[in-house]
Prior knowledge:
Layout: H1 19-27, E1 33-36, H2 39-42, H3 46-59, E2 63-66, H4 80-117, H5 133-141, H6 147-154, H7 158-173
Parallel strand pairs: 1-2
Amino acid sequence: MPDCNVFMDKQSGKDFNRPQYKKLLRKMKKDDLLYIKSIDRLGRNYAEILEQWRILTKEKGIDIVVLDMPLLDTRRGKDLMGTFLSDIVLQVLSFVAENERTNIRQRQAEGIAAAKARGVRFGRPPKPLPDNFHNAYQKWKNGKTTGTTAATECGMPLATFRYRASIYEKAKLL
């Protein structure tokens, strides 16, 4: 199989708004064969997987083979019983894929909450205040200079200066 016929997205399969998937849809035509490693590689949203499967198989007339689930091979069993079995397996696997996504999000939220409870700080550590921050802050607070001028003196954007000034004020009150 030529590499030009391999489509791989590097982003999450949480939805179908993925560049390579869209490119695949544009390129596929009737009677083409689509190989998917696993149904959860197609997507992780139950309703969307079923909708995309319908679009691919019914509207575009594409055959699909899911490599890790031989029952999901639309080339075989085009009769009523084969279609019925494929639909049941697809629905079960789509449910499992979405359920796994829900579990992952739940575990992630629990992990973040536990880390925050332990005092772990997320994000980039703040830069230390410049040496002249106190003087620039005092001039700004006393109305002797504008916020823009004070921020420029400190080498930071105005929004950052105001944000850091509010933290500075709170720290002085403690």
